[in-house]
Amino acid sequence: TTTTTTPPAMPASDFRKALAPVLAYCLCSMTMIYTNKYVLAVFNFHYASALLVVQAAIAVGLLLSLDRVGPVAIPEFDFVTALRWSPVTIFFGLMLYTGSMALAFLSIPVVTVFKNMTNLLIAFGDWYLFGQHVTGGVMASFLMMLTGSVALGFTDLEFDLVGYTWMACNCMSQAAYVLYMRKAKQTTKLSEWGMSYYNNILCIPLMLFAGIVSGEFSQAASFELRGDPWFLGALLLSGVVGTALSLSVFWVVNATSPTTYSMIGSMNKIPITIISVVVFHTVLDWKSTASIAIGLAAGLVYTWAKLQAKAAQSGPLPK
To answer: On the chain, which terminus has fewer CB atoms closer than 10 Å, C or N?
Structure first.
């Protein structure tokens, strides 16, 4: 019997299992970032805490309505479960808040390129916490991500230090959220619906506290466009899409792994960046464009390296 180094193809059942959550995540993440950018930048609603409270309240109401109708089953609120899940919610709230603040100050292409740095943190966490191997190809993609991010920072025509600070905080909180969620899911045994329910219901008091301390709520109450139907429609849409995005993240991580989730995010950044340049009339010169291209290419290299590593782990097949 001879052997061959050709890696086995993904079983059709596994491919179908992963395809639905991946497509759902891509669609929801694209819609969410455009909607939030529209609310925060186009309407100049710079009150992230208030925005997140509204989004979380809409999510809780939507989930409870679906539970009442019957398509899903939401568990009864349990204090012990909430306590175990609370670190995930803290990271979740920080991820949403810092992401919203970064979008208020930075263009979507800048945000999408710098989100690649989250992949580095997640991969490090996968290696340190779960023993996953980091290959040379992955390390090369990380070097490209770092190069593209640093170059973009130097060539960004609309450079804003405050925005970049929020972006750094967003990368760290998102990595912590994805990695800790994997552990918390094992201890709480919550379904995707249950995780989304606890995330949003616990996020409300967290963001209320942040909004009261920062004074955002008093400022948001006097927002001049608070009665505008387009603004209210965008706010409602962001809450609905935010619920779907939360569920799709759980779905992807459950069907694949945290690293695969970050890999999909890298691929999704390409259409997000291209469309946003057209829709929001982002100002770019050739240096910024080249830096963004390097950052996006790094995501593709990362994807290729992870697929190669997965194929190598499968080992040779008898022929």
So the answer is: N
